[in-house]
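Fold it.
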Amino acid sequence: MHIRLAEERDVLSIRVLLERNYDEVMSEHHSKRIIGKFKSRTNDESISNGLKWKRVYVVEDGNGEIIATGAFANFGSAEKPKYSISNLFVMPEKQSSGIGRMLFEKLYQEAKANHANSFHVPSSKNAIRFYEKMGFMIDVEQPEKDDEVTWMTTVL
């Protein structure tokens, strides 16, 4: 397996990976309304735009197929950063094989390299236990309850 920065040529593969997770994993834990909302925001243009302001990574298997993606993002400002994980997804059939943990470590190191004091994630319901294992705790304040997203934080 190989982790690298995503490129424009990866947009379609990333979109398919996200859509498969919405349909095959998240749909068991989230309402149809939220899955529809996530899907409506996921298109080639939005992914391509994300490549411009996030550090989006992909994991390739030995055949060069993209099997995971995740991004390091600042959801705050330059003056008051909120360094976060964004869209960390592993192909459904490859989950629970250590790929997510490996990609998480890459994003975690990115946060440390940026001298972050804390690291955040807007977690889907199905990923809360994964992030708890990675040392995250559920935030007291939850600004996006309507999106069925749980914000979590770990101190670096």
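The chain is about 35% helix and 25% strand.
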